[in-house]
Design a protein that fits this description.
Blueprint (H helix, E strand, L loop, with lengths): L3 H15 L5 E3 L6 H7 L6 E5 L2 E5 L5 E5 L5 E6 L9 E6 L3 E6 L3 E5 L1 H9 L12 H8 L6 H6 L9 H10 L13 H21 L45 E5 L2 E5 L7
Antiparallel strand pairs: 1-6, 2-3, 3-4, 4-8, 5-7, 6-7, 9-10
The protein binds a DNA duplex (13 and 13 nucleotides) through helix 6.
Length: 269
DNA sequence: AGCGGATGTACAG
DNA sequence: TGTACCTCCGCTT
């Protein structure tokens, strides 16, 4: 689940249920018990996302910094909360709602200063309205690294994950192995604009859909399909299957310890 | 029961 | 470049 859209949606969902309400805070699994005891009974004062990082504000006590990593999960539910399973790292409860966090890479109580430091090591985020794409362009346009690797580098641009990377490059017909410095300004502007649009829709729907209406199977005269990861996509994990646009076999390759997916015909140098 | 992955990152060398 | 870490699920035996 967790690319940037998931985390921004989590911030919204935490605000809707817990903002300005005193919450019971616990760590059934135990790894966050000391901080949980400190926060227990305090109101949630803010919830904010930057890229794949989530920050839950507890006033002067600081922020709970959460990163889901690859496996982390968040489950919301009503009250009364069921008995927690033994992997629940963090549980928030009010008389009306609860939320459980499992398997995060990071769950730590941090200060304002530490939070600032996290923001400073992250690049602009297409989902933060004030973030400046020119800062991404400044680095991308000077780099010999492939555009595919650059899009996953959170110091350069925050929030893009393996699905959005594959899909935005497909939608713009860009070969993933082109160097950042060979991307034109017009192409970069289109990448950023497309990420803003796709990721906003991702927050709205809580899933990733990237296939344009004219390429949906019904529009292409093919039977409806179901992608096994929740949304409709062009190339992500569709290797060895036909491209939805041209029919060429979608390819996959390892790139910097991640699987890359692309259509060699639609995405040309 | 045991395995291999997975929308991620950090660190070692 | 490889490896470790967090958890769950689906596939194979």
């Amino acid at each position: 689940m967790p690319e940037g859209h998931t985390i921004h949606r989590l911030a919204e969902d935490h605000r809707a249920r817990f903002l300005d309400r005193p919450v019971r805070v616990s760590s059934p699994q135990g790894k966050f018990s000391d901080a949980a005891a400190l926060l227990d009974g305090q109101p949630l004062t803010d919830a904010e996302a930057h890229g794949k990082h989530l920050f839950l504000g507890f006033g002067a006590l600081g922020w709970v910094h959460i990163h889901l990593g690859l496996f982390g999960k968040v489950d919301f539910g009503d009250a009364p909360a069921p008995p927690p399973t033994d992997t629940v790292r963090l549980r928030l409860t009010t008389p009306k709602a609860h939320v459980d966090l499992r398997g995060p890479t990071t769950c730590a109580l941090i200060t304002d200063g530490e939070k600032t430091a996290v923001h400073e090591r992250l690049g602009p985020d297409p989902l933060r309205p004030d973030d400046d794409p020119d800062r991404v362009w400044a680095r991308l346009s000077r780099s010999r690294t492939t555009v595919a690797a650059l899009l996953l580098d959170q110091k350069i641009i925050a929030g893009v994950g393996n699905v959005y990377r594959a899909e935005v490059l497909f939608r713009l017909g860009i070969d993933p192995y082109r160097a950042g410095r060979d991307i034109t300004r017009a192409e970069w502007d289109a990448i950023w604009a497309d990420l803003v649009e796709l990721m906003r829709e991702g927050v709205r729907n809580n899933r990733i859909d990237t296939v344009r209406p004219e390429h949906m199977p019904e529009a292409m005269g093919r039977p409806p399909r179901v992608d096994d990861h929740g949304g409709e996509v062009y190339v992500y994990r569709r290797d060895r299957r036909p491209c939805h646009v041209c029919g060429t076999e979608v390819r996959t390759a390892g790139l910097a310890a991640r699987n890359l997916f692309w259509c060699p015909a639609c995405q040309r140098r």
